[in-house]
Design a protein that fits this description.
The chain is an alpha+beta fold and 98 residues long. It has a domain at 29-94. Helix content is 26%, strand content 31%. The chain has helices spanning 17-26, 80-94; strands at residues 5-8, 11-14, 30-35, 41-46, 61-66, 74-77. Strands 3-4-5-6 form a 4-stranded antiparallel β-sheet, with helices on one face. Strands 1-2 form a two-stranded antiparallel ribbon.
C-alpha cells in the first residue's frame, strides 16, 4: 500500500508518486482554519502522507494550534470527518471560534 494519498472530494485515495506529486503541487489541502493572524490560530489540513508510525489506520490529516497557551498542540486523524471534529475540539481548547 502507498504511503501517499490524494483527496477525491473528502475521501483519501492511495496514489503513486507521480499522481501524488502532480496533485499535491496544486491542491487545496485545507480542511478548516480558525482564529486571527497574529493571535491564536487553529489549522487543519490534509497531509497527503501517512504519519502512522505503528499499527492502525493511515493518519493523513493534522490539526495544530499556533499561539496562545496551547501553542504547537497537534492531533492527527485518518478521515476528513475525524479532522473536522478534531478541529472543533482544538478550537474549543484554544478558545477560538470555529
Amino acid at each position: 500500500m502507498s504511503d501517499k494519498s490524494i483527496l477525491d472530494g473528502h475521501k483519501a485515495v492511495p496514489a503513486d508518486l507521480m499522481t501524488w506529486a502532480k496533485w499535491y503541487e496544486k491542491a487545496d489541502r485545507r480542511v478548516a482554519k480558525s482564529g486571527q493572524q497574529g493571535k491564536t490560530r487553529v489549522s487543519t489540513v490534509f497531509l497527503g502522507l501517512n504519519h502512522q508510525w505503528g499499527e492502525g489506520p493511515p493518519l493523513l490529516f493534522e490539526t495544530m494550534i499556533f499561539g496562545g497557551e496551547h501553542d504547537q498542540y497537534q492531533e492527527r486523524y485518518a478521515t476528513w470527518d475525524e479532522a473536522e471534529q478534531g478541529h472543533r475540539k482544538a478550537c474549543e481548547l484554544a478558545g477560538v471560534t470555529p
